[in-house]
Structure formats: C-alpha cells, structure tokens
From TrEMBL:
Keyword Oxidoreductase: yes
Domain of life: Eukaryota
InterPro entries in the record: NAD(P)-bd_dom_sf, SDR_fam, SDR_oxidoreductase
Similarity section: Belongs to the short-chain dehydrogenases/reductases (SDR) family.
Species this protein is from: Apiospora hydei
Keyword entries, A-Z: Oxidoreductase
Keyword Oxidoreductase: yes
Protein name: Uncharacterized protein
C-alpha cells in the first residue's frame, strides 16, 4: 500500500515560503488548504495547483476564525494533519484557546504544528526591535506549548523553524518607521540602504528550505531516522548567528557561575 497522503493547512500563502509549501505539497500529491487575506485575488495564482483556497485573516475575531477552521477541518475526509503557521498576530489568552485547530488535534491525538520563526527569534539586530520581540515571544510561547502537549497530547509534534535570510519577498515588504529625530536620519538611511542592497542577494534558497521543512514533518529525506528537535535553524547565516548567540550565553554562564550561584540560600547540611 502507498503512503497515506497528509492534509496541510498553510497560512500566509500569497508568496514566499507559504506559496512554495503549496506548490511542493501539491506536486507530491498531498492535500493542501491554502489560506490568506483576500484569497480570491491574492491566492488566485495557486488555483491551478489544485489546492483548496480559503479566505482567512489571522487577525479576525476568534469566533470567525473558529468558524473558518471548522469549515476547513471538514474539507477532506480525515481532517487536517499539519498546520504551517506562516502568518500570525498578537493577542492574549490561553494557548489552546487561541488555536482553533489544536482542540481537534488533541482529541484525535495526532498532528503537527509548524511555526515559522526566524533567526530573529534567537538573535537581535538594531532597528529590528519589533520583529525580534515578536519572534522571541513566539518561540517562548511555542516552547511552552510543546511542554504542555508532551503531557496532554504526546502524539502532536511541534516544530519551530528559524530561517536566516532567504530569497523570498521579505526584504521588499519592510515597513520603515519614519525618522522623527534628525539625530537618527543618517543611521536610518544607512540601514535602509543596507537592507535594499540585499534584495535578490539573500544567501538562502527558499525552495531548498521548504523541501527540508517537509522532510522534518514527514521524517523523510534529511530527517529519516533522526529525532527532530523543537528548533531547527536554516541557512548558513542564521546558523552562524544562532550558534554565536548560544556560545555567548554559555560563556556568560561559565565565567559568572560563581557569582550567579552565590545568590542562593545556604544549603542545609
């Protein structure tokens, strides 16, 4: 018997990683529910793939998202197997109550949640405060989720991907904050020029990245026979920055160990 095909729900499919997920998965025969805002227009280029196109704004009210997810779950006979969280928004609440498909995954006992983070989830850059802060927060929230699911639903896999600079449209869609203080004008201009000089020259190949992410979910290819960790960086630049950050933290722990441990109450003999 052939391998059972999975059903994937992917957010943010208009371009970049999301679009590549749709095209690769449909080429391999998997079912795909491609979502995005104003989907009839922004996802029209994906209709020929045979993916199901669904209009979804991840910033919509929770009741509307839940209704759309209920519709999505029933599109294919066995529900949804993998959710690729390629778009997001900030809101407060208990984690499970924020994820409309998680209760269905937990009831069934299986499924995969893939979250698109960034090297920015581990490494900070000047002028990228907003982006780095949200990615750091995402990683903390998803790590908490992975620990919760290990207790309540160990059959659900959680995966955080941390790409470096990949040749998507990301650098072409940056919203630059207007310079309010003239002291920063020259610096901001240099930052913008530096970012724009990277357009089309990013070292990462998004096609290769998506192929590896699919392997990580399926346990095939580069992931065959391996235990997939919670976090996987992608791209040489992302790898070097994340590795450097981890080494710096470890060095701090070593060099300051005596001072750090001195804050404990004396241990009873």
């Amino acid at each position: 018997m052939g391998e059972t095909k999975k059903t994937w729900l992917i957010t943010g499919c208009s371009s970049g990683f999301g679009e590549l997920f749709v095209r690769k998965l449909r080429a391999s025969g998997d079912n795909v529910i491609a979502t995005g805002r104003n989907a009839k227009v922004k996802l029209a280029h994906l209709e020929a793939t045979g993916a199901t196109i669904l209009d979804l704004d991840v910033a919509a009210p929770v009741d509307k998202i839940e209704a759309i997810m209920a519709e999505a779950w029933d599109i294919y006979p066995n529900g949804i197997d993998v959710v690729v969280n390629n778009a997001g928004y900030i809101v407060t609440g208990l984690f499970e109550e924020l994820k409309a498909l998680l209760p269905k995954f937990r009831a069934r006992g299986t499924g995969t949640l893939l979250y698109m983070s960034s090297q920015a989830g581990m490494y900070a850059d000047p002028t990228a405060t907003g982006y780095c802060a949200t990615k750091h927060a995402l990683e903390a929230a998803v790590e908490c989720l992975s620990l919760e699911l290990a207790t309540f639903a160990p059959g659900i896999k959680v995966l955080i991907i941390e790409p470096g600079y990949f040749r998507t449209q990301a650098f072409g869609n940056i919203n630059y904050v207007p310079t309010r203080n003239p002291d920063f004008a020259e610096y901001n201009a240099a930052v913008r020029a530096g970012i724009e000089s990277q357009l089309g020259k990013e070292p990462g190949d998004p096609d290769k990245a998506v192929s590896i992410m699919i392997d990580l979910v399926n346990g095939t290819g580069v992931a065959a026979g391996k235990e997939v960790p919670l976090r996987v960086p992608l791209g040489t630049d992302g790898w070097s920055r994340i590795k450097g950050k981890c080494e710096t933290v470890l060095e701090t722990c070593r060099n300051w160990e005596e001072v750090v441990k001195s804050t404990d109450f004396p241990q009873k003999q």
